[in-house]
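Blinded run. Sample ID left blank on purpose so nobody reads anything into the name before looking at the predicted structure. Input follows.
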Amino acid sequence: MVWEPVSLREIRTEMANLRISVLDQSPIISGHTPAEAVRETIRLAQAAEKLGFHRYWLAEHHSIAALADPCPEILAARVAAATSTIRVGTGGVLLPYYSPFKVAEQFRMLEALYPGRIDLGIGRAPGGDQVTALAMGEGRYTGAENFPEQVQYLVAYLDDALPAGHPFSKVRVMPAGTTAPQVWLLGSSDYSGALAAQLGLRFAFAHFISAQGGDTVMREFRRRFQPSSREPEARALLCVFVICAESMEQADELSASIALRRLNTEQGINAPIPNHEEARNYPYTDGDRRRVAYHRHRVVLGTPTVVRDRLQQLREAYDADELMVITITGDYASRLRSYELIADVFGLSHAVQDGAP
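Blinded prediction complete.
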């Protein structure tokens, strides 16, 4: 057998077949204002587009001192205006709080402004503590009991597909158009995966929230998927927390801020993301260190090649069509650098230059 060397271009083309995207929670790092965090989101989105990432999703959280974005549908409009090719969406809109009709109008407007670039990711979590959830519901906790019905109504409004005999069948969501946002159900358990399969919608699994059992959820989603007018085939995305740096030691040091952030969350401390100095100087107890070690499995960290290999392993284990990465560190520069290293090791910018989709 004659050995034929594989060209660098062939390697890049093969890796570029894997779409990689960004989830941004608009972190407020200690020493910075919420307004600065929002501006950093816009800057990072512009950088992500240049680096070759496929999607840029914005998360919804309420009354959390570490996260600046309670209304991703508004920030998505600003991000899409500041970019030109990257898909922009939500990861996600917390539908139990809202009218499906109004959400459909918002995303129809986004689609009219930026046709072919808008994703509507839908979640059912409260996005904050119980008191905040009560405030969102004007003293009533909405819950998610009607979530499946809400999703069905939302998709029907987007697609003008209510049955002829339905009381609202003559209601039109404007601005109407020939294209529609992609709809993704988001989840960290089997619930949303099963619902996405039943309704024939795309599914995104949050590995960064739940790092165990998701491979079974994703494969079960594919097995049970029922083709729909929107999606003839199952499409699945895996979202992973990643910290990438030039050395393992640096990546480990950068991870201290998110480790302390998760510790604060467990202890009910509502504070900004700790910066590097705060994370280094925190007086950890033995119990704290055990909790930090426990959460470590939710983070992929290391040098570019280590991160690339681990993400490829996760993609295969979860049978994911796409990967999405979320990075939070104790400063905005190292966060950006992590994404730059990921884009480089996967050849994303080369894919853009070479004309790959």
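Unblinding after everyone has recorded impressions. The chain is about 45% helix and 15% strand.
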